[in-house]
TrEMBL record:
This is Leucyl aminopeptidase family protein. One of its GO terms (molecular function) is manganese ion binding. One of its GO terms (cellular component) is cytoplasm. CDD domains: Peptidase_M17. Keywords: Aminopeptidase, Hydrolase, Manganese, Protease. Belongs to the peptidase M17 family. Residues 307-314 form the Cytosol aminopeptidase domain. The keyword Transferase does not apply. It comes from Sandaracinobacteroides saxicola. InterPro entries: Leucine_aapep/pepB, Macro_dom-like, Peptidase_M17_C, Peptidase_M17_N_1.
Length: 459
């Protein structure tokens, strides 16, 4: 993994390039006081303060275009970190803790590379020096967690199956001294996880429920749940080739839950943490679940299979039922669950569902603070009728085609006690377009928002 700690260092003096954050208004205000060399260099470069632009100003000075120099955005330094010559740099104006923490994220992530299958060309490091020393460790931790999400999600399914997801969780558990166990294969039936077993039984790679526990039992219970479908063929309701193209990312929810758990443990938040990852391949074989099958679930509700491609809600049903048994103070799940959420909100804006108005409001506010937005959609109870079954308690699919993200969230709600504060995040976990600091590929979404909320609630 990228050595983020070497890219953000305390400023102890010495030679370094200077970065001056400028927008159009600030540039015009400061222009008369600039040296003739700086003015000429900026004019030659056509620099106007446009966000994501940079220009040499002479000597070791550089202008960096941003939307608002007083409130630097989370990605405001990402373009600079990708374009500047290798070396050491300091910001001309010292940002406070929060400002640097946000701005440093783009600086760090712009220098992350996924190199498992192809060596990156040597680039040299761009090191940012800062006097806001207290902001360094949190910024590095967030970059490491974000890189974990990206790397796990970018890894193709042949190298990121259920065993590899378990190994990634075990690595995080070992690093933080957490206890971990996994229930696998046929043992899922004995342990009463029949839905996870049903989804994954067609694959030669055994499905599993991965559990991590950490923290003082006297502290409030925080439970994080992640959907870990390592590859989603659609099952017997097979996807077309175009629909399968990105399905290595269908374990993106598990990657997010694992990365968030690592942040919680790394910050020593006073919680009793449980992480549950429901991990499986949705494959095709003679043993695959069929449309029309009736499945049992851990909670005791029977589910008719209307569509084998609606498998994520099945594995989450067992995991959420287990989570609810512990009566957590807060329960959060993460899943690349529905295309309907992407139709409604697009690829950049995750959908938030919650049975607790205060929790939803706090999460949205945390997303605003962290510049990591979510958008709440309703748990519209009238739509429960859309997944009724004539012969089982529930159907995992709606024939109507309407409100797909809401229907999926309502299905999950049936496995969570009404009085447990619960948030369900339906995210894409992928960048389809290239932006500074955000290459095409696996993407961290809501990680900063959720960690901000947890610090506010428990720190």
């Amino acid at each position: 993994m990228t050595d983020f700690e070497a890219l953000l260092l305390p400023d102890s003096g010495g030679e370094a390039g200077t970065l001056q954050l400028l927008d159009r208004e600030t540039l015009e205000r400061l222009r008369p006081g600039l040296s003739a060399t700086a003015r000429a260099a900026l004019e030659a470069a056509g620099f106007t303060g446009e966000p994501d632009s940079i220009a040499w100003m002479g000597e070791r000075d550089w202008a960096v275009g941003v939307r608002d120099p007083a409130r630097p955005g989370r990605w405001c330094l990402a373009a600079a970190a990708g374009k500047l010559p290798p070396g050491r740099y300091r910001l001309q104006s010292v940002l406070g803790f929060a400002g640097l923490g946000n701005a440093a994220h783009g600086w760090l992530m712009a220098q992350h590379r996924f190199t498992r299958y192809r060596k990156a060309e040597p680039e040299g490091a761009r090191v940012l020096l800062t006097e806001a020393i207290a902001a360094i460790a949190p910024a590095v931790a967030m970059a490491q967690a974000s890189a974990l999400v990206r790397d796990l999600t970018d890894t193709p399914a042949n190298d990121m199956g259920p065993a590899e997801v378990e190994a990634a969780a075990r690595s995080v558990a070992t690093r933080h001294g957490a206890a971990m166990e996994a229930v696998k294969g046929e043992a899922l039936l004995d342990a009463n996880f029949p839905a996870i077993h049903a989804v994954g039984r067609a694959s030669p790679r055994a499905p599993r429920l991965v559990r991590l526990d950490w923290g003082d039992p006297r502290h409030p219970q925080l439970t994080l749940v992640g959907k870990g479908i390592c590859f989603d063929s659609g099952g017997l309701n097979i996807k077309p080739g175009s629909g399968m193209a990105l399905m290595k990312k269908d374990m993106g929810g598990a990657a997010h839950a694992l990365a968030l758990a690592g942040l919680v443990m790394g910050a020593s938040l006073p919680v009793r943490l449980t992480l549950l990852l429901a991990v499986a391949d949705n494959a095709i074989s003679g043993d695959a679940m069929r449309p029309g099958d009736i499945l049992a679930t851990r909670k005791g509700l029977s589910v008719e299979i209307g569509n084998t491609d609606a498998e994520g809600r099945l594995v989450l049903a067992d995991a959420l039922a287990l989570a609810a048994e512990d009566r957590p103070a807060l329960l959060m799940d993460f899943a690349t669950l529905t295309g309907a959420a992407r139709v409604a909100l697009g690829p950049e804006l995750p959908a938030l569902f919650s049975n607790n108005a205060a929790l939803a409001a706090d999460l949205i506010a945390a997303g605003s603070t962290a510049e990591d937005p979510l958008w709440q959609l309703p748990l519209w109870q009238n739509y429960r009728s859309l997944f009724k079954s004539a012969i089982a308690d529930l159907n995992n699919n709606s024939d109507s085609g309407f409100a797909g993200a809401i229907v999926a969230a309502l299905f999950l709600e049936r496995f969570v006690a009404a009085d447990l504060p619960w948030a369900h995040i339906d995210l894409y976990a992928w960048n389809g377009t290239v932006k500074p600091g955000r290459p095409k590929g696996g993407a961290e979404m809501t990680l900063a928002a959720c960690f901000t909320l947890l610090k506010q609630r428990f720190q």
